[in-house]
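Quick one: structure tokens for this chain, please?
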Amino acid sequence: MERVEYEMTQEDFDRLLNACKPVPMIALQCGTPRSPQENANDAWQELGSRMGFDHMTVQPSGGGDRFFSAVPNDQVIHETEAKL
């Protein structure tokens, strides 16, 4: 599968950083809060939905913090269909 270079906005980058922050445990009777990893995964999934890439294929690229590469969603769909 061919990878594509992407650049997220500063707002998207800030959203990802905030998702990685630990969540304070305020009340034990409410249950265990989601982990920073779970929150970060959800943030990447949302970003992938908006920008059109498979969030499970993201890799950093050398362009800076806001740059990364990933496989576009349409490629993932075509590869999956070809295997069926």
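Residues 16 and 43 are 6 Å apart (CA to CA).
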